[in-house]
Amino acid sequence: MLERRKPLDLLFPLKGNASTRSGEEEVQHPGTLERLRAGVTLARDAVKAVSLTAMEALREGASYIGIVGEKNELVDPFEHLDAPIWSERPPAELLKLAYGYCEELTMREAGNFYHSFKYLPDDQRMSMCAIYAFCRRADDIADGDWADRFPGSQGEMDPEAMSYRNELEALQNQGTILDQDAYLNKITQLFFFRKKLSTCYNEVYSTDPVFLALKDTVDRYSIQRDVFDDLISGMEDDLYNNRYRSFDELYIYCYRVASVVGLMCIEIYGYEDPRAKKFAESWGIFMQLTNVLRDVGEDIQRDRVYLPLDELERNGMTEAELDGKIVLNKHWEPYVRSYAARARTYLEEARQLLPLLPRRSRYSPAAMIAFYDKILRQIEKQQGDVFTKRVKLNKVQKISLAAAVYLRHRFLPAFLDPVWGALARVGILPSV
Length: 432
Prior knowledge:
Blueprint lengths: L31 H7 L10 E2 L1 H9 L24 E2 L5 H18 L1 H7 L4 H22 L15 H12 L9 H19 L6 E2 L2 H13 L3 H16 L6 H23 L5 H20 L1 H6 L7 H6 L17 H20 L7 H23 L13 H17 L5 H9 L7
Parallel strand pairs: 1-2
Antiparallel strand pairs: 2-3
Helix pairs in contact: 3-5, 3-8, 4-15, 5-8, 5-9, 5-10, 6-7, 7-9, 9-10, 10-11, 11-14, 11-15, 14-15, 15-16
């Protein structure tokens, strides 16, 4: 197994049967993985930089450069540049293009998420789009067919990439679950993705619009690098693991691919109470647990099982039944209800995040929480049938939920929250 950065469950007690793992590595020292990640940097003197002449030419033509092509495809405004960095700070016009690219990507790929933060102040909205674009591209590399752009590298034969891969493999007790060609392609791309992340924390500027916008976001809101590194580690996990034996193993994966996103977001929303970090962690766990349940049927088609195997066995079910036959197993629906109940222990903590955020930004996480709560309720209503068709919200549900969330968290005074909660429990108002 990888040496893991300890998530916040060492600091806060957890619900939902996740072990606190107290007594395990109580004294924290930089682990092998952390030292390995820290060595992945993109230095000014190690790469070719875009010239000032090229920067000025781009600046002059910025108003004519589009991010949507003739066939309505998303276009990288800097794709013709043959160098990975600007060694000087690019002008505001180019930064605006980078943020525009991230916003267009978010609108195309994540309607639910975009609706949840489109009413934020402009700077917060654009920074949320940069965060989403980073996460989307990492996932596209690990779980899709995205071909990332990093000029000047030697690809899979790059000496640094090979050294990183060898050290990472040495931390594993099993090989990749992918065919060798796909594995080499993805692990190499994720390595260069880490190198581009390093530009957000040093003096150079990436010519990738996602990382150019992300660097400005990181600087503006002082977001620590470890949350971004942890998300990439979650993507790397998918190259080595397609089964999770216990809920504790699943929890760490959920932390890496979802809780860290919540920890990124709250830095943009703003908070003062340190408990916000605990509740942001739980927010991510709730959303990812819901994703896991919703996607059981799709995941098994990709030879992935995220439900804890020991729980299936204890409840009289087998992995082989996850092709859809499991709905006929008398134990499936009770298990789904138990699973949903555990997910809601994290939902309860996620909702405690909202009062700790400024009212102007509270709507954003509240909407995401409401969307996923509704999806979980629909799964239960369908008696756990996530195989016949994908469980998702229709346009009317999204609009009505978003409107209710916006009304409650943007305009209603706090003293009316108990009234809304009481009416929601009896079904008169939506649970938001």
